[in-house]
Amino acid sequence: MKATGVVVEYNPFHNGHYYHLQETKKATGADCIIAVMSGNFLQRGEPALLSKWKRTKMALLGGADLVIELPYAYATSHAPRFASGSIYLLQSLGAESFCFGSESGDAELFSKTHEWLDDKQETYQELIRSFLNKGLSYPSAASRAYESLDIPLALDLSKPNNILGFEYVRASRELGSHIRPVTIKRKNADYHDVMLGTGNIASATAIREAIFTSDAEQAAPYMPSYTFELLAQEQVEKGTLMNWERFYPLLRYQLLSTTPSEINRYYEVEEGLEYRMIEAMKKSDSFDTFMKHLKTKRYTWTRLQRACLHILNKVQKEEMLAILDSPPSYIRVLGMTGRGREYLGSVKKSLDLPLVTTVSKHDLSGLRMEAKASLVYAQGAARNTLEAEKEEFNTPPVMV
After folding, report:
1. How many whole angstroms separate alpha carbon 38 and alpha carbon 9?
2. Per CATH, is 3-103+164-187+224-241+322-399 categorized as 3.40.50.620?
3. Cα–Cα distance between 252 and 119 in angstroms, integer?
4. Is residue 8 part of an annotated ligand binding site?
5. How far apart are CA 13 and CA 223, in angstroms?
6. pLDDT (tens digit per residue) in 326-341
7. Residue 123, CA atoms < 13 Å, CB-side half-sphere
8. Where are the alpha helices (DSSP H) in 29-159?
9. Which of 28, 70, 83, 318 could join 167 via S-S bond, C-beta 3.0 to 4.6 A?
10. Any known ligand binding at 7?
């Protein structure tokens, strides 16, 4: 069987994601689509809207055949780590290609850009450092450095999906992977759009905005019916859909009850950020207000949210770096279709990594971190918290 991979968060799964999966099948001719999906916390430093189990079911109903979990350490890291962990897992499962959405829509352009940059790497890194010294965030510094090189190509690295695609291709090259990059041009909605707009495709950002600030029914035309039903089911079971405001009291307690030196031990808390966080917390009655007090030119909103996640989950630098020092050490199966099960059976004996379907049967540092994060995630539920806490250990892979 021929497999291709996609890297996803599905927060939530919408019509644009469905389009991407269908076009991926057409572009690659794959028999099996493997989705590497973030767990309960995401790369933008946010809690997922609903549990990874509900999001897995959405993925399988939408066209994925096998869903595996991107471990917390990679799922909540900056783009290069996020990409390298994802591509490594796809390579480990024998995927022949990976397919990502981009504003460019030209996979060859990504590869050619990397080839050109290989010859300019020293200058590129020097330029990044110079822009960082001017107080820019890393993404802005990297984008400005890229523009300064005047590369004779048209890849726009100011666009969010192009940036991620650039990192996926970089990860594949650095791993010496045989996996072929394929890209589908992003359709209609921009990644950061906050308005639903016309047509039937909107960004996940706009859909979440509608869900939390207006009538969720307005977002229904932009997602498959099963997504809307699973969102409603989660609302009934847990009394809420998750966002940062659900966790703000826990974060507030952590920051106000912990010394600055202790806060500095948490991953991504650097350069005295702990002092700024404590002061911002003292004058903020919501997570949104807190972030607005905290935001600076130096740090992106996403970067600050990730630091908050690690404080919330009490993930220390030493613990995180010990995991990130090596590629992912296991393959955690979240769900599969009959075709996904068939593919997994065909490659199972050749896998170099342990295959995890039941967490309690394995003792791995990445799984321990995942379990701790899932217990914290369960505290955001408005009801049935004890049941939510058991999900990590009691939920078998979703079968569709």
Report:
1. 5
2. yes
3. 47
4. yes
5. 7
6. 999 999 999 999 999 9
7. 11
8. 52-62, 72-75, 79-92, 107-118, 121-133, 138-148
9. 83
10. yes
3-class DSSP assignment, residue 346: helix
The type of residue at 286 is S
* 228 annotated among ligand-binding-site residues: no
Decide if 25 contacts 54 (C-beta within 8 A).
no
Amino acid at 379: Q
Residue pLDDT, tens place only, 381-392: 999 999 999 999
Task: Return the CA Rg of the chain.
Answer: 20
pLDDT, one tens digit per residue, over 270-318 is: 989 999 999 999 999 999 999 999 998 888 899 999 999 999 999 999 9
**Other CB atoms closer than 10 Å to residue 117's CB: what's the count?**
17
Do the annotations mark residue 114 as ligand-binding?
Answer: no
Return residue ranges of the chain for CATH 3.40.50.620.
3-103+164-187+224-241+322-399
Q: Is 78 annotated as a binding residue?
A: no
Q: Is 14 annotated as a binding residue?
A: yes
13 is in an annotated binding site: yes
Is 101 within any annotated ligand binding site?
Answer: yes
146 is in an annotated binding site: no
Specify the DSSP class assigned to residue 178: -
Largest CA distance in the chain: 57
pLDDT above 70: residue 193? no
Question: How far is it, in rounded angstroms, from Cα 158 to Cα 341?
Answer: 39
Percent of the chain with pLDDT over 70: 96
Question: How many other CB atoms are there within 10 angstroms of residue 252's CB atom?
Answer: 17
Whether the bond between 224 and the residue before it is cis, its omega within 30 degrees of 0, is no
